[in-house]
Design brief:
- The structure holds two protein chains of two kinds.
- Chain A is mainly alpha-helical.
- Chain A has one domain.
- In chain A, strands 1-2 form a two-stranded antiparallel sheet.
- In chain A, a hairpin with a 2-residue loop joins strand 1 and strand 2.
- In chain A, helix 4 runs parallel beside helix 8.
- The two termini of chain A are 42 Å apart.
- Chain B is an alpha/beta fold.
- Chain B folds into two domains: 244 residues, P-loop containing nucleotide triphosphate hydrolases (Rossmann fold); 74 residues, Alpha-Beta Plaits (2-Layer Sandwich).
- Helices cover 41% and strands 23% of the residues of chain B.
- Chain B is built from 14 helices and 14 strands.
- In chain B, the strands form three sheets. A six-stranded mixed β-sheet of chain B has the order 6-7-8-3-9-10, with helices on both faces.
- In chain B, helix 6 runs parallel beside helix 7.
- Classes of the chains: A mainly alpha, B alpha/beta.
- The interface between A and B is large, with 41 and 42 residues.
- Chain A: Belongs to the ABC-2 integral membrane protein family.
- Chain A: InterPro entries: ABC2_TM, ABC2_TM_bact-type, ABC_2_transport, T7SS_ABC-Transporter.
- Chain A: This is Transport permease protein.
- Chain A: Keywords: Cell membrane, Membrane, Transmembrane, Transmembrane helix, Transport.
- Chain A: It is found in: Cell membrane; Membrane.
Chain lengths: 286, 369
């Protein structure tokens, strides 16, 4: 009997031209799941706004009578603090990006996603980035609104764009870090521990709460290489209406940092982090 | 229950099905051509060997059972098949697709029901199914129709729009089965699908599996319930300590053992020396092929006899020796006997032995992505 054995080499499913719609379909579905979670369990969203709000009110009040000359240009402390707390809000929100992924790993839900013929497993990462970016930006905008209500100012239209761009770059970088940790660490206990340890020290070792010249030299050095500072100072300048890219935003011990350089540093950091975690993601998601 | 929509097929799965049709023919010429072909699969979890060179062929349209105690390597083997785990060595072919080289094509051909049902408690059943359908790139209208017919088949209509967190274990398992069947895979892989299920859900799962097989789906399921594999499977492999120790149809495996089984309990809890004395005396009877002392069961005696007529001889001998008889049960060989014959211990004993040897943290680490 003659049997026409299928030529398996050629009967494999080909990479069809429907790659882009399929990518969109799976990314949209994964993102929607995260948003359904967010809407039905809004405590993350609310807590992420409440905590910085309390910082803003309590810290603002604590240093309301800060000695004259502490802040450049006799700025009110609350006005100074606002930029720091806005960045802290976005930073904390993004730092939690890895948690849902870690829970999916631990509960085996990730297996469900990985056993499906996803067009690209990068859509899992992309969905996380989309989700956490919108979450962080919404939280930051809420804090900006609160700061405005407290009389700490509001950036103009162009200033707002600069604020959002700065936050976006920081959120990308921190999301990359957190997703990397979510795949590198063994479980959520360890991830929460790292988040806990990283969160506040990075805030203190930045220019969020006090200017550089108020700090001892070693701390000023730390603050001048802290990515949070690179986000805080452009936002502080956006609030002050200084939007030029060549505007010096930080007089660091190693030299002056312009607004353009600060943004570039954040962008490079974000790209570097995603490049660093890529092999890890490839391994874990292959 | 109305007959469900076999007529439409999702593109990726359609390719798998189309591929299977000519392959059905090749079966007659090349008995080796299966929907699943595993060759020389080995896998270690840390220092512990989980699989030591497993070969397995599952023919199209059959229901294949993978039997073995907990820790025998069943889950590891299934995870390798589902492309969730890479073997240390060996070949994996699914529908002729080299699953190690082209895992995405292989994934399109299979539905997987994991042992521990991972669901997102906050989603409703419909939302989870829709997510799963989108991950398989099903067109929305077909997806909705498919969700409708599957949930009707699985008897979960009322629960579809409630959150999964409120589901019972049985309902979760049905939902999981539905997600695995959404894209109409020609191959369904289930890891202990009825473990810990209520009777209703178990009956539904069995019914659905039989039906799917009737419609041409190839099914591979693992189980440590002997009767489940006996009732459902066309063929089975017994996996023990990471190796296939017996393979064949349930009937053939039992047939190969030959003879009837006789379980004799002198007393409810016999003393060992009395049981041993009886054992040595019963061995002399012609027609008694084997006498095994089962210490785990109150020192009962398990006899293999050539035919039913030997029972009366055994009974007479016991009366002559004025030994008491608490119970004397005759039975056909079961899969447990197959297991006993292959491994020298019962399935229960094997589970106990394996439990102490397992490195659960290494397994968990290997299982986590």
């Amino acid at each position: 009997m003659t049997v026409i054995t299928p030529d398996l080499e050629h009967s494999q499913p080909k990479v069809s031209d429907s790659a882009v719609p399929e990518l969109l379909q799976e990314t949209f579905a994964l993102t929607r799941r995260l948003f359904i979670q967010l809407v039905r369990r809004p405590s993350t969203l609310v807590a992420g706004v409440l905590q910085p709000l309390i910082w803003l009110i309590l810290f603002g009040a604590l240093f309301a009578k800060a000695p004259a000359g502490l802040l450049p240009g006799e700025m009110a402390y609350g006005r100074f603090l606002a930029a720091g707390v806005i960045v802290f809000t976005a930073f904390s929100g993004a730092l939690n990006a890895g948690l849902p992924v870690m829970f999916d790993r631990e509960f085996g839900f990730l297996d469900r996603l990985l056993v499906a013929p996803l067009r690209s497993r990068f859509s899992i990462v992309l969905a996380s980035v989309l989700h956490i970016t919108s979450l962080s930006l919404v939280q930051s905008l809420a804090i900006m609104g609160a700061a405005a209500a407290l009389g700490y100012g509001w950036p103009g239209g162009a200033g707002l764009l600069l604020v959002l761009l700065t936050l976006l770059l920081l959120v990308f970088a921190v999301t990359g870090l957190s997703l990397g940790l979510a795949f590198a660490l063994p479980g959520h206990i360890e991830l929460i521990a790292v988040i806990f340890v990283v969160n506040l020290p990075l805030l203190f070792a930045s220019t969020a709460l006090a200017p550089l010249d108020f700090m001892p030299t070693w701390l000023a050095w730390l603050a001048s290489i802290n990515p949070l500072t690179f986000a805080i100072e452009p936002i502080r300048n956006a609030y002050a209406g200084n939007l030029g890219l060549s505007q010096v935003v930080l007089q660091a011990p190693y030299g002056n940092v312009t607004l353009g350089a600060a943004l570039l540093a954040l962008a490079v950091l974000a790209m570097a982090l995603f490049l660093i975690i890529r092999p890890l993601l490839d391994r874990k998601l292959s | 229950m109305r007959s469900w929509d076999l007529c439409w097929r999702q593109p990726a799965a359609a390719r798998c099905w189309a591929e299977q049709l000519p392959r059905l023919w090749t079966v007659f010429d090349l008995p080796g051509a299966g929907v699943i072909e595993l060759a020389g699969i080995t896998k270690h979890h840390g220092p512990v060997r989980a699989l030591g060179g497993v070969d397995l062929v599952v023919q199209p349209g059959s229901l294949y059972g993978l039997l073995g105690p907990n820790g025998a390597g069943k889950t590891t083997l299934l995870r390798i098949l589902c492309t969730l785990l890479a073997p240390d060595a060996g070949q994996v072919h699914i529908n002729g697709i080299d699953a190690l080289n082209d895992p995405r094509a292989a994934r399109g051909c299979l539905g997987y029901v994991a042992q521990e049902v991972a669901i997102d408690k906050i989603l409703s059943g419909r939302e989870l199914l829709t997510l799963q359908g989108d991950l398989h790139h099903l067109p929305r209208q077909r997806l909705e129709a498919r969700i409708g017919s599957l949930t009707e088949l699985l008897g979960m209509g009322d629960w579809l729009d409630r959150r999964c967190g409120s589901y019972s274990g049985g309902m979760r398992r049905r939902l999981d089965l539905a997600t695995a069947l959404l894209h109409h895979p020609p191959l369904l892989i289930l890891d202990e699908p009825t473990a810990g299920l209520d009777l209703d859900s178990r009956a539904i799962v069995w019914e659905v599996l039989r039906r799917l097989r009737g419609e041409g789906t190839t099914i591979l399921l693992s189980s440590h319930y002997l009767e489940e594999v006996d009732a459902l499977a066309d063929r089975l492999a017994i996996l023990d300590n990471g190796e296939v120790i017996a393979e064949g149809s349930p009937a053939a495996l039992k047939e190969r053992l030959g003879g009837d089984r006789l379980t004799l309990r002198l007393r409810e809890f016999s003393e060992a020396h009395e049981a041993e004395r009886a054992a040595s005396l019963l061995r002399d009877i012609s027609g008694v092929k084997q006498v095994v002392l089962n210490r785990a069961q109150g020192n009962s005696l398990n006899l293999v006899i050539s035919d039913a007529a030997v029972v009366s001889a055994v009974r007479e001998r016991l009366t002559d020796l004025s030994l008491p008889v608490f119970s004397l049960t005759q039975s056909r060989p079961s899969l447990d006997d197959v297991y006993l014959q292959a491994t020298g211990r019962t399935l229960t004993d094997a589970e106990l032995a394996v439990a102490s040897r397992r490195d659960l943290s290494a397994e968990r680490k290997a299982a986590m992505r």
